[in-house]
């Protein structure tokens, strides 16, 4: 993770002088917007589910070229969607990412993982999206029958059984909604009992938190439980400033360039997915630095957003960059 660490240290000078840090800690590549589920909380920052915004996808060869372009800027790559497992070439993309020196993170619901076991070998961190352990509630949340929920839970069992032999770390990623607060608490306890990672984000509608979570005492008790778990043992991700931030929905200085986001067609959102500006195609520019320069020239300065996007990928990374002492201790929570 030297690229991550090197860029983190370089960004400290920008933060100290009031500038936007521009060295990416990781990239998030949406390999597809397709999805076979209908999750109640899915949101692309514009009030739609990702699958409601169909988009051309790079070919396998183009995706591998894109990955190579990104590698010159940092060493951590997050693969997400949509549902990335709908790409039949996902293994080949991950294999290439590993071969050029990326640390890989895969975000998925894990349906059918038993027949694609190489994904565990190729993902350094396997992030399984799971908001409840109850199959009936899970089916309701993903908008599918009980049988689909059972397949998601079967994927969880498969990762638990095989993760150590395949060399991957497992993280359970939960979205807290007004209706599943108690269920997320059970997912947290399950993660702690099984020695696996956990992180939580509040449900976002567009770029704002679901209003029903504000002043919600049950939600606050959940986040208090998460904070207590973090203090007691390793595995809960997000520094305490983030956890307190999503408890109280406090304002924060967002640094979107810490995790540039790439669309399925190879265009880069600037400065973030929620902005919807994606005029710059990375393969046309050949390097992230050149693409970033072009995006700045076209779109201008990054707006100062302070009271929206209370989600892990924005808020947790931004606060991590601004709290170096907390960042030093955070590493132990990734070793699960």
Walkthrough of the structure:
With 336 residues, this protein is an alpha/beta fold. The protein has a single domain (2-334), classed as Aldolase class I (TIM Barrel, Alpha-Beta Barrel), CATH 3.20.20. The protein is 44% helix and 13% strand. It contains 13 helices and eleven strands. The protein has helices at residues 2-16, 60-71, 90-99, 118-122, 135-142, 146-166, 181-193, 217-232, 240-248, 282-285, 288-299, 312-322, 324-334; strands at 27-30, 76-80, 103-108, 125-129, 169-176, 197-202, 204-205, 208-209, 261-262, 267-268, 280-281. The strands form three sheets. A seven-stranded parallel sheet has the order 6-5-4-3-2-1-9. A two-stranded antiparallel ribbon has the order 7-8. α5 packs across α6 (146-166) and α9 packs across α12 (312-322). The mean pLDDT is 94.
Number of helices: 13
Series of secondary-structure elements, N-terminal to C-terminal: HEHEHEHEHHEHEEEHHEEEHHHH
Quantity of strands, as a count? 11
Largest beta sheet: strand ordering: 6-5-4-3-2-1-9
- Unreliable residue runs: none
Based on the coordinates given, report the CATH architecture: Alpha-Beta Barrel
- Class from secondary-structure proportions: alpha/beta
| CATH fold name | TIM Barrel
Strand content: 5-15%
